[in-house]
Amino acid sequence: MANNGHQYLLLRSGRYYYYRRKPFEVTEALGPGFVRISLKTTDLKTALSRRDIVHRDIEQYWHSIIKFGHQDSARTQYDSAVKIAQSMGFHYQPADVIARELPTPELLARLEKIEQTGIEKRAVVAALAGGVAPPAITMTEAFDEFVRLTRDWLTDKSDEQIRRWQNPRKKAVKNWSDVTGNPELARITRSDALKFRDWWWDRIENEQMTVNSANKDFGHIHQIFEKVNEGLQLGLDDPLARLRFREKKKNARPPYSPEYITQRILKPGALDTLHPECRALIMIIMNTGAGPAELAGMIEDDIILDADIPHFHIRENSERSLKTMYRPRTIPLAGVAFDAFKELVPKGFIDYRNKPTQLSANTNRHLTDNDLRESDDHSVYSLRHSFQDALTKAEAPDRIQADLMGHKFHRPKYGDGASLEQKYRWIKKVAY
């Protein structure tokens, strides 16, 4: 719907709704009138994105009614009931919940809507009276639902970012299914959850797995369950809460010492056998503090080498979005970082575009194979900490450090921050 402007958008009391008259072809099944679905936002850009998703779902639903009527699978009938209820301003609720928990005013409103629409409209009666059983869905099937329900979370992500976001959740679902036998969501018990937790503890004790890895699995499984339970309005109790193990505070990666950088990493020939983009990564991080994901996501337009002060932009572009609101920034180039951009990656990281994991892994492998780690705890990311240490030792102002590193500035923020010239002066002081 990108070319249809604000079609089907309704603004009421500062909030946006999808609002549209039902086509004649579906009024026999659904009754006449309008569809009005809250987009749950006050922001126009967000509303337009969500409008497109709702529109696509509504169109598919209406087409299925026109083509097949309502004699369809149990899952389709349930989806239809949820959408009919939403289109009439209600959440779908099972009949027992309606009878047991709904306040009297909402119960009366549902009955009034049924009467207005016509008691002979069986689909409407089923939707508003909770007459359709929830679908039997396993965690494996729930993952596909989760992907559908979270499309609006990923609208500004690149394909590679989406893949990296989905993969750990897929892995968590596979682990869960292997351990528990993949029961239906409605049949998951606390015993299933604790069985999964015990399985992870055995791996931590016997396979050198980390508490952090276990907690990530717990978080992903719980997130999928909650989102699908809410999105499909299943009304299930939550058996997956409070599974996390207590984590010890992690030590940050140590910085490389200036002497090690000068005498070992930048020693002539030390990086000659490394892929040019991996070599560039090392040289750029040590003089700018930019992270692998930030650098791998750049495009040619982000790199300005012919200006009075050569620089590059870390910002959202056609290839990626950024991690937090504090990360977008412009960083001047000096020393080996400028040389790396000019000679190795003038158009960005082409081979590793949006592949920061592979970029870091291959770079770290070279550091290990060539004895270029100052300790076992050092990695290419340690060079980012080295850069911040250098700024601190040079007594760069906190605002300059925050603007260069992409950190939040923990004081009231006035103005636009440091100028390119100001940042350049400090970069030159610490550059290799």
UniProtKB/TrEMBL annotation:
GO terms for molecular function: DNA binding. It holds the Pfam family DUF6538. It comes from the Bacteria. InterPro entries: DNA_brk_join_enz, DUF6538, Integrase-like_cat_sf, Integrase_catalytic. The keyword tRNA-binding does not apply. SUPFAM superfamilies: DNA breaking-rejoining enzymes. Residues 251-432 form the Tyr recombinase domain. Signal peptide: none annotated. GO terms for biological process: DNA integration; DNA recombination. Keywords: DNA recombination. This is Integrase. The lineage of its organism: Bacteria, Pseudomonadati, Pseudomonadota, Alphaproteobacteria, Rhodospirillales.
